[in-house]
Amino acid sequence: MFCDIKAIASDLNRTHFMSTVVGLRRETVRILTDEHHRIDIVDGQQRLTTLIILLRSIANILSTKRQNEKIVRQDLEKILIKKDKVSLLLLQTNHDTGNYFANYLRYGSHESAGIAKTAADKELLLAIEECEKFVADWVKEKGDLIELVSLLKNRLTFIFHEIDEEKLVYTVFEVLNSRGLDVSWFDRLKSMLMAVVFESDGGNVSEHIKEDRKSVV
Question: Which residue ranges make up each domain of the chain?
Answer without folding.
Answer: 2-180, 181-217
